[in-house]
Structures are given as structure tokens and as C-alpha cells.
Amino acid sequence: MATSCLHPFSEESPRTSQLFGILGKLHLLFLAVLVLFPQLLLAQWNATIGAQSDDLGRQALAFLPNEIWIHAGESITWTMAANEGHTVTFLTSGQIRPPFTVECPGFSAPSAIFDGSTCVTSGLLFQGDKFTVVFPVPGNFKLVCLVHEGMTGTIHVFDPSQSLPHDQAFYDREAQRESADFLGVEVAGVMNHQHHLENSVIAGHGETVANGGGSDSLSVMRFSDQGITVHAGDTIEWTNDDPTTTHTITFGPEPQDLVDPSSNVTVDADGARHGVLYSPSDAVHSGFIQAAPQDRTGLAQSPSGVTRFRLTFNKPGIYPYICSLHDVLGMKGSVVVLP
After folding, report:
1. For position 39, what pLDDT does the model report?
2. Is residue 154 located within the same domain as residue 260?
3. Alpha-carbon span 167 to 182, nearest angstrom
4. How far apart are alpha carbons 237 and 109 in whole angstroms?
5. DSSP one-letter string for 233-252
6. Distance between CA 42 and CA 74 in Å, rounded?
7. ω before 65 within 30° of 0 (cis)?
8. Has residue 2 been placed in a domain?
């Protein structure tokens, strides 16, 4: 009888053990959810970098939007929407702004955590690229692009106990509205104006705007007269009318050093650079043509920028040229020199 009484219990033991195993796993899963649930509640915000026209000629140099409120511990993912390169950069307070080629020394990662103590940057981003930054502590942090000095924003990081003024849908609408505003700006009349010389070309035009979050700009990456005709012995003057964006005037192969002018360029009495071409096969490079940065109280005054480049053509022919920085966006032109 004892044997028969124990028999049912021995059959149910594996089932009981299996049940306890399942309950144990559910218990561990429940504990994991309790630990991870606060993290799952943290919002992951999204924003856009840049906007452009269909022909790539108009570039909105902007963080869209450039002012966002989030909670500590949350992240923002920026997505590039333009072909022009940008960075997502957070410098420390008082840090000297580095060139975009230097970035943040010692930092390299596809995403970052920024608490204000160490500089972080994305590196150069192009269309479709993404960069995510987590903000673990409250504060107000300035956002900059190392490529474009007039492209800034602000991230307001609140304590989780504080309410936020906007949701993601609001920021999406703002990004769309600001993008449409930038690309709809009428600048054709400005681009077509001719000044100083009859044979003159505007090498790019730009306008800068500001709001409570920072500043943004629109740059027109085009030469105003992409096909100009002159006679042998004439001189053409290119002027960069953009307050922030740099351009070049390059005939022939692109040099390795884009910043400095080629050796066959001299400087006129008014500070404009001047070159001479004797044949369509000759090469000349203006170097960077750009406006001077805005002066700031308490800092040394910056020198005047080199905004003009003149070129004299001594032989008939067709002379194609580009902006070495923005030719991929279609910033190209040609000069037809008649006898």
C-alpha cells in the first residue's frame, strides 16, 4: 500500500518542478521589468539638421528646430537632411572653438553622453547620417556646428519633476515650418545685383536669422552668373556676399590646400586677391573667400575678411571653374572669353 500511495506523487514531481521553474523565470522577468521600466519611460527625442532645395543650391544651415526642452536622462537623435556637411557639437563652458577637422580631442563615438564637463561632437555628417546625445543632468547647453559659425541652438534639460512645454509633434511641426520658411526666402533679386564692376559675379549669398534658441542661416550655393562672357584682357571680380559661408573660385584641378590661394595669386591695394590666366589650360585658385567673423566685446578685433577675387583673362577660350567646397552641390560656372 505504501508503494501505491507514493506512486502518484512520483508522477507529479516533474510537473511540479517544471511549474516552479516557470514561476521562477517569471519572477526574474518581473524584477527586470521593475528595474528597466523607468528607462523605458525616458523619451527619445528627434530633430533634423539642415534642409535643401531640389537642385541643392539653397542650403538651410540650421538645426531644426534649434531649441528643445527635455528631461534629464533623455536623449535627442539628430538626422541629417541635407548634402552640405554639418556637425552636432557641444563644447564645454569657455572652451576655445576648434576647427571641424580637429573636433573634440580624445572623443570618437557614434553617440555620446553630455553633462557639460567634456566636449562631444559627431564629426562631419552628411545626408542620412544620425547622431544621438544623452543628457544625464539638468542644464542649458549650447549646440553648435563646427563647420558653420552662425549655426547654433540650445537644449534645455529639466529635472524630471518639472513639466515640459512641448511634445515631439510640436518639434516636428516647427522643423517643417522653419524648413519651408528658409527655402522659401526670396533672394533672387539680391543674387542678380551687380556692383563695383560691370564684369562681376556674386559668389554665393546668405542671410542670417536669430531666435530665442540661437542663430541659423540660408546660403545660396550658386554663382549669380554661371555663364559670363568677356573679351580678352578683361577682368572679372567675384564677391562672396554670404556672411558666414566660405567659397572658392577654382580654375583647373583642385589643389590639396584649399584654404590658401595658389602661388600665381597676388593682392591688390584694396585687399582683393588677383590672378591672371594666359590660357584655358592654366590653373588658379582663390583660396578661401569669406567675410570676417563678427567682433565681440572683450576680444581682439578680427581683421577684414577677404571677400573678393579678381581674374584677368588674356587669351580667348572657354574657362570652366568651380567652388571647391560646394561643387558637389552644383556651384559651378564658366567664362567665355572672346577676342
Report:
1. 43
2. no
3. 23
4. 44
5. T-EEEEEEE-SS--B--EES
6. 6
7. yes
8. no
CA-CA distance, 324 to 313, in Å (whole number)?
20
3-state helix, strand, coil in the chain (%, to 5): 20, 35, 45
Binned average pLDDT, 10 residues per bin, the chain of 339 residues: 43 54 52 40 90 95 97 97 96 90 75 91 93 97 94 97 97 95 65 60 93 94 95 97 94 96 97 97 97 82 90 98 97 97
Whether 234 and 276 map to the same domain: the answer is yes
47 in Cβ contact with 65 (< 8 Å): yes
3-state secondary structure of 174: helix
Which phi and psi angles does 208 have, rounded to 5°? -110, 135
CB atoms within 10 A of CB 20: 10
Query: Cβ contacts of residue 76 below 8 Å, gap of 6+?
Result: 44, 45, 46, 47, 68, 70, 132, 133, 135, 155
Confidence (pLDDT) at 305: 87
Q: Residue 198 has what pLDDT?
A: 81
When computed from its CA atoms, the radius of gyration of the chain, rounded to whole angstroms, is 29
Number of domains present in the structure of the chain:
2
Provide the H-helix boundaries in 207-339.
none
* Integer Cα distance of 37 and 117 in angstroms: 28
Return the CATH number at 140: 2.60.40.420
d(CA 183, CA 218): 8
Residue 297, pLDDT score: 82
User: Which pLDDT does position 185 carry in this prediction?
Assistant: 62
Beta bridge partners, 315, equal: none
- Within this chain, do residues 196 and 328 fall inside the same structural domain, yes or no? yes
Count CB neighbours of 83 within 10 A.
Answer: 17
